[in-house]
Amino acid sequence: MRAPAEMKCAVELLVPWPRGHLGRWCARRRCSTVPAALTAAILRQHGQAKPTYELHEHRQYPPPSRWSSLLNVLGKLVVWKSSSSASARHRAPSTPSPSSATQQPPLQPPQQEPCEYLRGFLTIETERRIRANDREFNAQFHYANNYIKTSKYSVLTFLPLNLFEQFQRLANFYFLCLLVLQMIPAISSLTPVTTAVPLIGVLALTAVKDAYDDYQRHVSDSQVNNRKSLTLRNGKLVEDKWAQVQVGDVIRMENDQFVAADMLLLSTSEPNGLCYIETAELDGETNLKCRQCLLETAEMGQDDARIGAFNGEILCETPNNLLNKFEGVLTWQGKSYALDNDKVVLRGCVLRNTQWCYGMVIFAGKDTKLMQNSGKTKFKRTSIDRLLNFIIIGIVFFLLSMCLFCTIACGFWETITGRHFQIYLPWDKLVPTDPTEGATVIALLVFFSYAIVLNTVVPISLYVSVEVIRFVQSFLINWDEHMYHEKSGTSAKARTTTLNEELGQIEYIFSDKTGTLTQNIMTFNKCSIGEKCYGDIIDEQTGEVLELAEGTVPIDFSANPDYEPEFKFYDKSLLEAVRRKDETVHSFFKLLALCHTVMPDEKSGRLEYQAQSPDEAALVSAARNFGFVFKERSPNSITIDVMGEREVYELLCILDFNNVRKRMSVILRKDGKLRLFCKGADNVIYERLKNNSDSRKIKTQDHLNKFAGEGLRTLCLAVRDLDDDFFNDWKNRHQAAALSLDNRDEKLDAIYEEIEKDMELLGATAIEDKLQDGVPQAISKLAQAGIKIWVLTGDKQETAINIGYSCQLLTDDMAEVFIVDAHTFEEVELQLGKLKDAIGNLEKSDGVNGGPTAVSVVTFSESDYQHGCSVEEPEISGGIALVINGHSLVHALHPKLEKLFLEAASQCKSVICCRVTPLQKAMVVELIKKNKHAVTLAIGDGANDVSMIKAAHIGVGISGQEGMQAVLASDYSLPQFRFLERLLLVHGRWSYFRMCKFLRYFFYKNFAFTLCHFWFAFFCGFSAQTLFDPIFISFYNLFYTALPVMSLGVFDQDVNDKNSLSYPKLYTPGHQDLLFNKKEFLKSAMHGFFTSCILFLVPYGTYLDGVSPKGHALSDHMLFGSVVATILIIVVTAQIALDTAYWTWWSHFTIWGSLCIYFAFTFITNYVFGGSYVGSLSKAMIEPTFWFTTILTVTLLIVPVLAWRFYFVDVKPTLSDRVRLKQRLESLRSRQSQDILRTPSARRTRRSIRSGYAFAHQEGFGRLITSGKIMRKIPRPNTDFSFPLSFGSTIGASLSPRKPVVATSSSSSAGAFNNLAPPEIPGGFNEQS
Questions:
Q1: Distance CA 1165, CA 1160 (A)
Q2: pTM to 2 decimals?
Q3: What does each C-alpha distance from 171 to 177, 180, 465, 1083, 1086 come to in angstroms?
Q4: Are 14 and 54 in contact (CB under 8 A)?
Q5: Active-site positions?
């Protein structure tokens, strides 16, 4: 129930308990949050049969009682309503006129529409109450201040938090426990230093890296928090830091400044309280958007005293992440005013083309919508890290089982044999004298002793080596000259050192569009005028079209005083046609200069344009450079310069865009002659042309097909001459339709149809939304590598589709392109079901027609050779693409639909999500991570991409034009999208290949080393006696085998970078973890197990009871241990020499140098420092027995490995083997191969998709222009036109191009400028006309 409309105060439900926040909320929601039965029960208990109402002003409420507390709990329990109320929940609320005082409307719950689907990201509160310029009042609510913090540590918390994080890594905790055990003398046969030094080194290295990363975040936070803002204090402007701004403060902002917090606009420098903002940091769009403050507050202007005395009180929604939604009520001077999103500017926006504005802070700091969408910084680990944790757990159990076996065996040995040797091997004093009890105690102590002796099966040097390898790999990425962008002077940068190998396992790429795939620069590329095509460069001799080269000279427009130096056009014949005053060409450019909603502005004496989209600005700019300069406009006139001559047109009507009309028209009068100028989609314009222009239509159609085939955005232009009688009659009927209360839109469309017909075709334009260099080629290569690419953009559907075709994400080879754009749960479910059925039918048809079969990446049969290794690899074709809108994605991410959406989308070749919010981007990434268990990469360039970048396994920031927020939140930064191809296919694949080979070899050499102690246990009474010299044990992983394996992990490569790019399928093994997994680990462990057996048993059999020719005994423990250690070093060195695929001088130095280091250190430590094993190795090496044993052991261990590898390379070669063979043959022939993988052209012909700038641009300024609200001044006195009263114009949403395959039930969306002005007659019709 609502109070009468004429009453100005709020209506609230009277209940006997005090009204807390939730009570007031429930009243305004008509108790929709509280079950009706519960409400009735409470009322009955208090003696009321039904609720009553009272009228009252806003006031302070006492603390909530037990009843409101009960309601608060119950409200939170039922806040997720059942799906039966979905239709009501998604009904758009009606918004009163912003300029009139209204009764306070019932507030909608914040995040009402998508709250059910954004679970986990939002907090449920009730409302926010703010009073302007009253810090004391606002302080009681403890709202967040404007200080932001993205760093993880402080000086005090760094050490404990960082150590806590590091010891969450299982290996670090394992070695900490081991260190504690080694500090107990009774059980340790090794010094604690062997574990303490490496552990401290690993912790320190990681801590330094984490500290540096967090310092960078602190610097970024400090820069933002210390920005200056002008804040009103007691009626005077005071310069404050952003961090000191609080909720309720009033701030003044200047042109081109960032907005400090989410604010309610109070007044601006522009007419009627308008201001313009750029929201690139929020949604990636660089086109200007318009906001308008209340006319009542706009009257305060820039009077600091009046604004300082402003004491309005705002009741609004709580902080949330919805960028396009705000609901609230301003109460001021006894009146209430509805607030919506058009009256709010958000943090991260930039004020443009507005000298100044004042705003009242609503949300600050972490409560702002920008920060609500930023997501949390997550600790990222690679899949190899997770696998290592699992493997380490298995190794620890294997270690414990060996220790347990040795414990039991020791107990038996001490009981049966050992107790008889106490004269020679006395028991410790702690051991009981009883044989059984003594043996038991000794066995228990031996368990811990063997845990220490055998701990090298997982040495801590593994993690030291991994960190060093990743660190050096990061520098190799930073130093890659092929990823340096000379124009911007930026290079690729690895901002983390822990994720390099994950770059070789990417399965899904989630990319932003604007600024990431495109430059967001529209250029006038070609056109068709009067059956002639302009824009191509023709060879005068052959008549063939020439491709543009770097040396191609553009037309010189400098004779035009208003020309733009950055404008480039190469076909001189068009300029010659303009100069000879070709009538059709002049009409063409006059239409471009007159038919638009661009606003002119002057900065530093230079004419600049404010356009709703870069598309429209490109067309007006083209006309300007060819001599048709749009100079100024008023509500009823447009002034242009034509070849230096001033022409003024009377503006009679603007028929603006909507998504049904797909066109825009203006009606102008000059010299008493009426003319309609129209531009729009070709199919729409062609239906409205005269019947006598068939030849021009056919010729222009051919040109349109050519333009669209090149990926250009096309648009048709037409004109119609009108007579006064027809126009006046049409004007009267248009006015009647505009004032109709029934079916107004349908009547207006019919009226528009009457005048937009029998037009004469002038020609067509072709605009290029410039992609970044190399984007189509990069996407093609990544797709061939088996990576699925999803585009997640805030742009409109049509824009995204066109870019999809331009960058080869969508192709004509695709079977279908499905568009899901429904608004309700049921419709989205139906559309996704149709998509899934279509995919199933396509798979069936492929099976019947003998479609392409899957090709193994790891092994290829002879028939697969041509597919796997042919120079001309076939392009990926076929498949289905999905395009889904943001409002449909809200439903698709619902728990009941997300499985269906995932099944359908994951089987599509390409997916484009348009009109999505930053948080939806993150949710899509999380959906794939959670359900597909695939490695994901997100790439973007703006603050709106931060949450997606943080959510993905790997985040890549483009250092573009939208600030550095994406770069600061990323793991890797790139200057251009095209460098992602090299980052993944070269550095990512190499890093994964190297890390996997490193791990396989590392586990092999350590199992071979450690298990020798286990075999020796059988011959030393399980006493935990070590086989090797303690110095050798300490140095084995630190010096003797460290450098070769690290060289392998840093520099090794199976194929070079050129072939890595030429054969993208080389990348696919990372998708299935083929190079290192549990099976590969077991192979390495078994290889080490076999090696340790041969290493121990062959020398043991040789030296058992061995005697030299001189009669010296050779069977002592130290000599035997030295021989086994020496053969071990030779064998593992030979093994890594076999494993090395790419030899450099560093490889030779580390591998052969390690052998030299072993012998040098052995003699130095024993002879110089007097080690206990002095002379043992020297004694052994002078005997032939040593050399024979060494050769026999090495042969037994290396020959089987060589035979195994030769067999598989010859019989079952992998693609890598074949490419490497090809590479070696090329090297032997000393010539560079000319066989380069063909890449698709950026200008590849595609189906004709008509999509001009009109479809990519938001609603125009039509109504604002004709109403005069947007104008700074009335027309100049010397013109013949007065400033009339306006009837406004119908503003529509952006138009849609012809969709290839549509499974839609969409309705037209609301425009960006709704509710900017009082209701007017649609059509932009001037009363005077």
A1: 9
A2: 0.68
A3: 10, 14, 13, 22, 22
A4: yes
A5: 512
User: pLDDT tens for residues 91-104?
Assistant: 333 333 333 343 44
For 1085, the token pair is: 């462990």
Annotated ligand binding at 1324? The verdict is: no
Cβ atoms within 10 Å, residue 386: 10
Contact assessment for residue 296 and residue 97, using Cβ atoms and an 8 Å cutoff: no
81 is in an annotated binding site: no
Pairing mode of beta strands 274-278, 288-292 = antiparallel
Q: pLDDT tens across 112-146, in order?
A: 334 433 333 444 457 889 999 999 999 998 899 88
Taking the C-alpha atoms of residue 965 and residue 374, their distance in angstroms, rounded to an integer, is: 10
Q: Which residue has the higher pLDDT, 957 or 35?
A: 957
How far does Cα 154 stand from its chain's mean position? 28
313 in a known ligand binding site? no
1029 annotated ligand-binding residue:
no
Pairing of strands 52-56, 128-131: unpaired
Model pLDDT for residues 527-544, shown as the tens digit of each residue: 999 889 998 888 777 777
Per the CB < 8 A criterion, the answer to whether 670 and 650 are in contact is: yes
Helix residue ranges per DSSP H, 35-107? 36-45, 66-77, 86-89
Closest CA to 936 of 381, 474, 515, 502: 502
In this structure, the dihedral spanned by the alpha carbons of residues 515, 516, 519 and 525, taken in order and rounded to 10 degrees, is -130
Name 230's bridge partners. 239, 252
| d(C-alpha 330, C-alpha 317), whole Å | 12
828 burial class (0-12, 13-18, 19+ CB within 10 angstroms)? Answer: buried
Q: What is the DSSP string of 151-177?
A: ----TTTHHHHHHHHHTTSHHHHHHHH
Contact 1044, 1150 (CB under 8 A): yes
The DSSP code for 1248 is -
Tokens of 732: 């009267």
What is the maximum span of the chain, computed from C-alpha positions, in angstroms? 132
Tokens standing for 1088? 């080490």
> Is 1288 annotated for ligand binding?
no
End-to-end CA distance of the chain: 46
% of the chain residues with pLDDT over 70? 78
Annotated ligand binding at 794? The verdict is yes
What's the burial of 966, exposed, middle or buried (CB within 10 Å: 0-12/13-18/19+)?
buried
Q: Which helix (H) or strand (E) holds 1090?
A: helix 1078-1103
1218 carries a ligand binding annotation: no
Q: Is the pLDDT of residue 316 over 70?
A: yes
Residues written for the chain: 1329
Per the listing, tokens 């340096």 go with 484
The tokens for 1092 are 């340790």
CA distance 1080 to 1072: 12
User: pLDDT (tens digit, 9 = 90+) per residue, 1045-1090?
Assistant: 999 999 999 999 999 999 999 999 999 899 999 999 999 999 999 9
pLDDT band at residue 1111 under the 50/70/90 scheme? confident
- Provide the β-strand partners of residue 680: 663, 716
Question: What are the backbone dihedrals phi and psi of residue 1236, each rounded to the nearest 5 degrees, phi first?
Answer: -115, 135
Residue 657 annotated as lining a ligand binding site: yes
Look up residue 744 and give its amino acid.
Answer: R
Q: What's the mean pLDDT when you consider all of the chain?
A: 78
557 known member of a binding site:
no
State the alpha helices, DSSP H only, in 757-864. 775-784, 797-806, 825-848
Residue 352 and residue 1166: Cα distance in Å, rounded? 77
Strand partners, 788: 508
DSSP 8-state code for residue 1165: I
- Annotated binding-site residue? 944: yes
Question: Strands across the sheet with 335-339, in order?
Answer: 128-131, 313-316, 328-332, 335-339
* CA–CA dist 1131, 1136 (Å, integer): 9
Instruction: Report how far residue 879's alpha carbon sits from residue 110's, in angstroms, rounded to the nearest whole number.
Output: 41
